[in-house]
């Protein structure tokens, strides 16, 4: 099983099962392979029960990959082997112990879009809608506090309210009251409730401590303060803990990730063994030496130096252009040259710091008729047609679902405008009732125009009719029926374009996916089954369903540097390498360190060829900057590893 592993990988896999180990795994060093073989070693060699092993990672994609690899090697029935995300595990606990944390049985998970709907409602209820820019800042304030385990009562208790955050605090307080009243749980709340579940129930904590004796945690550098406190609480009495991570690839500080947790682990578990995976199987020597030099400028690292047996390869090419047009032309012509020499377009990745940088790149690719695919685009479950169809079903199962009500009351168009919806919303607040009940009341008074009343009554009647006609249908049949009966299908068919045809196809995929999901489920009622699927779809939304994409298409990959983490490409081009763009404008050392880690991630995606581009002039957010300075990260790479290419007309 382990004969193909290198010496350090073997050491990590076969470390005594009762030891705590920190595997410091560099980019391209085979960390997933080590994690998978460690699981198998515990199961087969040490004979640890599958019910006693808990493996956590950060994405559903990683969960599926680990499961697939374990199954490929030992063909294990994995029902009792828990491999999950942090949010997925929290959901498991809350689904079983919902009453202990004051949640209803059918509590609903909010995705980021749902969360913003209820934060908007909290802003209105707090009578702060006249203030601009509150939504984004309030969302950040709420999520950052939850990621630290801080409730509104904690903010009050520690007297952390002043004029700079008073509005955000009011919104947080109101938003949480709305969520608690309606049984709504956002993503940070999942982990916070699970943490509080064990914090306030020592007997339950001991139960799970006895069950789980061996922990394996992937991407440990991405854990937040609260996530670390939660898992530390659970595995305090575990026999053996294996954590895998790379502090040099911690790039999610903006959502609470704390690379210091790796050092805290060594502090809290002082007898832990550190094993460094430094042999890289991905990149050329030139690329690795450049990446090593770059990241060495960061302080307080755990420290490692990547090396490889692969040849030196090409130097890193650095292009300094005049503006985005020059930059895009240079990038695309290099991709064309790669293709002419026998390389595939799909082997090329263009990376950038900000999503809006893709505009000029897309134009250049279109100009030369080069196919491309943008990664990190809207995930399947967040697509408009999916949200609309699911909102009909949500309203059928729960007439009090105001978010779904607002989404579909005028979709397809029924002559119910924004003014009418605003009247319904205000009346709902005045009556202290949901919008469905409010509409029924408004039909009997003269607050609305006759035409609006007629349209609203038709909408209410349609929902009731669809509910009755689909009563005996399975969930997948209901979705198919609702898409047609609601008028959504006809709305898209009438547009007669490729995008609309794809939207209709996506509903077929949704129907098929729900049918597969519902097989072998033990929920008792259609409502329970539907809510289970809703929760699953939201927890999976970061990865989505990719069946609508042609995986065999030879297309250039476009993505942000954040989206590139965990991927590799023979040819990587990183655009926008100038001060103010990458790194973004900041003088805070901690933020610069994270930007540098992001650059390190970008460099280590490349296998054979790497190009970095910067420009003298860039158009961004309606302004054109001039005399831009190339990124400090370019100058942190030793000149012996690079070759400069200058714009021909640039002085």
TrEMBL record:
Q: Which PROSITE patterns match?
A: UVRD_HELICASE_ATP_BIND (PS51198), UVRD_HELICASE_CTER (PS51217)
Keyword hit for Hydrolase: yes
Where along this sequence does the record place binding of ATP? 25-32
- InterPro entries given in the database record: DExx_box_DNA_helicase_dom_sf, DNA_helicase_UvrD-like_C, DNA_helicase_UvrD/REP, P-loop_NTPase, UvrD-like_ATP-bd
* Any Gene Ontology CC annotation: cytosol
An example GO biological process term is: recombinational repair
Q: What Gene3D superfamilies does the annotation carry?
A: 1.10.10.160, P-loop containing nucleotide triphosphate hydrolases, PCRA, domain 4
- Domain UvrD-like helicase C-terminal, residue spans: 285-566
UvrD-like helicase ATP-binding domain location? 4-284
Q: What is this protein called?
A: DNA 3'-5' helicase
């Amino acid at each position: 099983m382990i004969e193909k592993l290198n010496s350090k990988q073997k050491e990590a896999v076969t470390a005594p099962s009762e030891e705590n180990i920190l595997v410091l795994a560099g980019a391209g060093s085979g960390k997933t392979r080590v994690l998978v073989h460690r699981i198998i070693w515990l199961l087969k060699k040490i004979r640890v029960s599958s019910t006693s092993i808990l493996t956590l990672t950060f994405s559903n994609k990683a969960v599926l990959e680990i499961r697939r690899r374990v199954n490929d090697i030992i063909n294990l029935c994995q029902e009792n082997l828990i491999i999950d995300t942090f949010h997925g595990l929290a959901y498991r606990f809350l689904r079983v112990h919902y009453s202990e944390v004051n949640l209803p049985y059918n509590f609903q998970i909010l995705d980021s879009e749902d969360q913003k709907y209820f934060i908007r409602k909290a802003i209105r209820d707090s009578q702060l809608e006249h203030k601009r820019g509150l939504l984004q800042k309030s969302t950040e304030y709420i999520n950052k506090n939850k990621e630290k385990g801080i409730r509104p009562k904690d903010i009050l208790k520690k007297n952390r309210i002043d004029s700079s955050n008073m509005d955000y605090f009011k919104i947080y307080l109101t938003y949480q009251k709305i969520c608690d009243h309606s049984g709504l749980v956002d993503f940070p709340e999942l982990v916070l409730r699970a943490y509080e579940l064990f914090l306030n129930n020592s007997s339950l904590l001991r139960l799970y401590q006895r069950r789980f004796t061996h922990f394996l945690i992937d991407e440990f550098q991405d854990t937040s303060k609260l996530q670390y406190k939660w898992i530390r609480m659970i595995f305090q009495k575990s026999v053996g803990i294996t954590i895998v991570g790379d502090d040099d690839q911690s790039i999610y500080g903006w959502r609470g990730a704390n690379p210091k947790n790796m050092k805290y682990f060594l502090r809290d578990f002082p007898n832990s063994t550190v094993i460094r995976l430094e042999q890289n199987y991905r990149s050329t020597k030139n690329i690795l030496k450049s990446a090593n030099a770059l990241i060495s400028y960061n302080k307080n690292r755990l420290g490692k130096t990547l090396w490889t047996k692969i040849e030196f390869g090409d130097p890193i090419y650095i292009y300094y252009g005049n503006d985005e047009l020059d930059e895009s032309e240079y990038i695309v012509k290099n991709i064309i040259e790669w293709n002419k020499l026998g390389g595939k377009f799909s082997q090329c990745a263009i990376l950038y710091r900000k999503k809006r940088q893709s505009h000029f790149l897309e134009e250049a690719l279109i100009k030369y008729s080069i196919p491309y695919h943008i990664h990190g685009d809207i995930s399947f479950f967040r697509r408009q047609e999916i949200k609309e169809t699911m909102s009909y079903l949500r309203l059928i199962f729960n007439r009090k679902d105001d978010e779904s009500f607002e989404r579909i009351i005028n979709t397809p168009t029924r002559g119910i405008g924004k003014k009418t919806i605003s009247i319904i919303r205000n009346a709902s607040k005045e009556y202290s009732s949901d919008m469905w009940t409010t509409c029924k009341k408004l039909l009997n008074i003269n607050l609305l125009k006759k035409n609006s009343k007629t349209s609203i009554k038709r909408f209410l009647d349609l929902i009731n009719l669809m509910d009755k006609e689909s009563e005996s249908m399975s969930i997948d049949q209901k979705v198919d029926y609702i898409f047609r009966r609601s008028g959504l299908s006809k709305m898209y068919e009438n547009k007669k374009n490729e995008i609309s045809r794809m939207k209709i196809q996506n509903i077929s995929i949704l129907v098929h996916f729900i049918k597969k999901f519902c097989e072998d489920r033990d929920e008792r009622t259609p409502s329970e089954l539907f809510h289970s699927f809703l929760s699953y779809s939201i927890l999976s939304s970061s990865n989505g369903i990719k069946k609508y994409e042609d995986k065999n298409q030879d297309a250039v990959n476009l993505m942000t540097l954040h989206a590139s983490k965990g991927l590799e490409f023979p040819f990587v081009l990183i655009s926008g390498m100038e001060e103010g763009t990458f790194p973004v404008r900041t003088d805070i050392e901690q933020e610069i360190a994270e930007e540098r880690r992001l650059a390190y991630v970008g460099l280590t995606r490349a296998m054979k060829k790497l190009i970095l581009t910067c420009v003298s002039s860039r158009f961004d957010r309606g302004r054109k900057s001039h005399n831009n300075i190339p990124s400090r990260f370019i100058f942190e790479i030793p000149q012996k590893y690079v070759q400069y290419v200058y714009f021909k007309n640039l002085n």
